[in-house]
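WARN no homologs supplied; continuing
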Amino acid sequence: MYTKILKELLSLKNDEKRLIFERFFKTKKGEYGEGDKFLGIDTPTLKNFAKKYKDIDFKTLEKLISSKYHEVRFLSLNILVLKYEKNIEDEKDILDFYLRNMKYVNNWDLVDTSSYKILGRYSFENNDFSFIKKFSKSDNMWERRVSVVSLYYFIKRKNCSFPLKVLKNLLKDEEDLLKKSIGWMLREVGKNCGEETLEKFLIENYTKLAPITVSYATERFSKEKRKRFLKGNNRNNSINIDNFSLL
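OK structure emitted
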């Protein structure tokens, strides 16, 4: 089955799109996706492949997720998500597979398409926060992003207490991809748990906030309020509390 799937994917190789994807996902030396290989297959096509092959066994899935091709790894993760959503396999087996192959979840789209739907869901439904806590302290940037994006499952269900604790501990992270994902989660906190909750968090943690995090987090604020938060950025890349009259 693995050979059949790979052959189908290779037949869809598109060199023009491949070059675009390699630039977009930063595959040059020294960039976060250094050395990653692409075929040039778009996401809708891969999503359809996942539906078609959602019943494949873990042995085949293991071969797919360890592929040198980015799109093949993306496909494997989407199959894994479908297995979880459709109760095709035991949830613990799916989680174990995900954790065992975490090293292949090594770009932001791979993290974002899988982490909250697998690790986030498992953690929420089983009241087990240990994996998210562990990954939030990892030296690996992608594992830290997994911990952040996994919080989305909590936040969408208006459970923001635990997510805010995790995010607070990561506010000084130096990686731009982490700063952006933290800002994204904070924006969703405002959407699902109230703008006041988000505003309070931003003000209380103003000395740790990076400009890009604030930019993402305040996207749903009114134009005037957002301008006040963005204008608060000083030379040290933090929010100047003196700009806020509501305190």
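Residues 234-247 have pLDDT under 50 and may be disordered.
OK
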